[in-house]
Fold this sequence. Notes:
The protein is mainly α. It has helices at about 1-35, 45-50, 60-80, 85-100, 110-135. The longest helix is centred in the first third of the chain and has 35 residues, at about 1-35. It is globular, with a radius of gyration of 17 Å.
Amino acid sequence: xxxxxxxxxxxARVSLFFxxxxxxxxxxxxxxxxxxxxxxxxxxxxxIAKLLDVSQWFNIAPLIAIIAFLPxxxxxxxxxARQRRSALFFMVCGALLGVxxxxxxxxxxxxxxxxxxxxxxxxIFWFIAVRSARRFL
Length: 137
C-alpha cells in the first residue's frame, strides 16, 4: 500500500506545482495587462472597451510561466529544506524576480508595478502549490 501511495503523493505534488504555476501566471498576466492599460485610460471610452476584452488579459501567461518555472522550483526546494511554511518567503522571491526583470526599464513605476505583481502571483502560487500540498497530502 505504501509503495503505491508514495508515487501518488509525488504525482499530486507535481500536479499542484504546475497548477499553481499556471494559475499564478494567468493572474500575473491579467494584472500586468490591466496595469499596462494605464490609469489615465479610464477617462477614455475607447480604452475602457479595449480593457474589457478579457481575451487579451492572458496573452503573456505562457511567457510568465516559463520565466517563473525555475525560480518557483528553487523557492519550493528551499522552503522544503528549511521546513518553514512562510508565504512571506514566496512573496519576497516573487517580488525580487519581478524587480530583477523590470530593472532593465530603469523606470521606478514599472519596477514597483512588476515587483508587486510578482509578489501577488507568488502568494497565489504558495496557496495552491505549497499550502494545499502540505494540508491535504
